[in-house]
Design brief:
Layout: E1 12-15, E2 18-21, H1 25-45, H2 53-73, H3 87-102, E3 110-111, H4 116-141, H5 150-173, E4 178-179, H6 190-195
Antiparallel strand pairs: 1-2, 3-4
Helix pairs in contact: 1-2, 1-4, 2-5, 3-5, 4-5
Subunit structure: Homotrimer.
Family: Belongs to the Cob(I)alamin adenosyltransferase family.
Enzyme class: transferase
C-alpha cells in the first residue's frame, strides 16, 4: 500500500466533496481534532487497565466520536449526513457528574500536573479548547448549514470531561492536585453544598 500521493505537495488537500488550502479554517479545525485524538491515545497508554477501566472505555468512545466530528467538519458535500449527534454530549455530562462526585473537593484553580496520565489529560483539555476556538471561527466564517454546530458543543463538554478525568486519575493514584497559589476560591462543589 502506497500512503503518499504527492497531491498535497502544492499546499492543497482533499476533503469530503472538494479540495481546499491546507491552512483553511476547516482543515485547521479538524486537524486540531486529530491532534487531540492522538494526545488522548497517549493518555490511554499511561492508564492502568484495571484501575482505570471506566476511563479507558470512555476515552476509546471519545476517540471514535472525535473521528466522527472531524469527518463532519471535513464534509462540504451538498447532501451530507453528520455523524456526531447530541446524544454523546448528554452521555458525557452524566459521566462528568459521576467523576466529579469521586474527585476531591475543589476551591481554587488547579495547575496541570500530578501524575503523568493526569498531566497528559490536561494537555488534551487545552488542545480541546483550541479545537473548539477554531471550530467557532469556522462556524462564524461558513455559510449557514455548512458546518455542524454539534461539534463545537461536543468539544466544549469534552474539555470539562477531561478536567474531571484528570482530577480522578490523581485521586485514584493518591497524587494531590496542585492548586494555583494566587487563586481566589472559585469553585463551589455540590459536595460542599450538601454539607450545608
Amino acid at each position: 500500500m502506497n500512503i503518499y500521493t504527492r497531491t498535497g505537495d502544492k499546499g492543497k488537500t482533499s476533503i469530503i466533496g472538494g479540495r481546499v488550502d491546507k491552512d483553511d479554517f476547516r482543515v485547521e479545525a479538524y486537524g486540531t481534532i486529530d491532534e487531540l485524538n492522538a494526545i488522548i491515545g497517549k493518555a490511554m497508554t499511561e492508564l492502568d487497565a484495571e484501575k482505570f477501566k471506566d476511563l479507558l472505555d470512555d476515552l476509546e468512545k471519545i476517540q471514535n466520536e472525535l473521528f466522527d466530528g472531524g469527518g463532519d467538519l471535513a464534509n462540504v458535500m451538498k447532501e451530507r449526513h453528520y455523524k456526531l449527534a447530541d446524544e454523546p454530549i448528554e452521555e458525557m455530562e452524566a459521566r462528568i457528574d459521576v467523576l466529579m462526585s469521586e474527585a476531591p473537593e475543589l476551591q481554587k484553580f488547579v495547575l496541570p500536573g500530578g501524575s503523568p496520565a493526569a498531566a497528559t489529560l490536561h494537555i488534551a483539555r487545552t488542545v480541546t479548547r483550541r479545537a473548539e476556538r477554531l471550530t467557532v471561527t469556522l462556524l462564524k466564517n461558513a455559510e449557514e448549514g455548512d458546518v455542524s454546530p454539534v461539534v463545537q458543543r461536543y468539544l466544549n463538554r469534552l474539555s470539562d470531561y477531561l478536567f474531571a478525568a484528570a482530577l480522578v486519575v490523581n485521586a485514584r493514584l493518591g497524587v494531590p492536585n496542585n492548586e494555583y497559589v494566587r487563586s481566589a476560591n472559585v469553585f463551589t462543589t455540590s459536595k460542599k453544598k450538601d454539607k450545608k
